[in-house]
Amino acid sequence: MPLALILALVCVSGAHAIDDTNMTKTPKDVGNLFLNDKNSKINSVLDGASKAYDFINEKNSVPDCLETSDGETVKKPQFIHLMAKTILYLDDPTQNEIVENDFNNNIKPASTPYYGTSYCELKKTEYLDIAKRLVNFVEKNKRLPNYVSTKSGKIGCDLLFPVFSNVLTTYKNTGELPENIKICLADKYQVIGQIMMKAAKYRYISGISTLEEFLRAGGGDCWAMSEYLFNELTKAGIKARIIQYATAYAPNHRTVQYFKDGRWIDLPYRSYPINMLFWNTYSKPCMCVIKVNNC
Prior knowledge:
The chain has helices spanning 27-36, 41-59, 76-91, 124-141, 157-174, 191-199, 211-217, 222-235, and strands at residues 4-6, 65-67, 73-75, 119-123, 148-150, 153-155, 180-184, 203-204, 219-220, 240-245, 253-260, 263-266, 288-292. The chain is an alpha+beta fold. It folds into 2 domains: 4-186, no CATH class; 192-292, C8orf32 fold (Roll), CATH 3.10.620.
């Protein structure tokens, strides 16, 4: 699964936002200035959002970072914050001024990201409210929220990325913020790849079998890894279960399966750089189910 998107952004780190906009200009006028000024950081955000939206539509996956033409990397949390600030500024440049620090902040990812929603429809007032709440949260906590609440339910930041990039792409093409947007990441199971990549950073440590110890130590045994994967799939709204069975190395090996199209499927351990001691085996003698979630 592609995790990075290479973009030819214009001067993301070296240029300055436009400062000669007077108070009589409308948001559309300001946008036209941005689009005509090749040294504008806002133009870079608009260009990046447009290319990212094309990438999302093609790959059905959200990039983890954007790389500029001069070799600098803008990570996903920072770019989500930049898009939210840009949307608010384009809606009302007299109330939501963009400053230099907005482009230099080291925004951390959500501590416990929510993946459960893959579809949303939002009116302009709703996505503006989401953008405002996200910006306020980030500027207070220096990280993304785990999710934002809406009338339709929770929206995680991986869905906010296409929401904001859709809004800015429409603005770039029309000079107007859209009145309504509809976003659908067609397959909620696409988050499994992201979960597996995150799991790959954890080491195999014999004797650490609980999730709490696993997270604190940066690793654990197959029981702990199974708890971690089960927990992440549950947060993503994916039906999952932990199973136990005998292998050549242990009588009580544990792995995780998810439910799709009427059947249980092993997680794709081998497709990611996960320690092979965590892998499932194809035959599962003496298999039993340890737990199943309610998704």
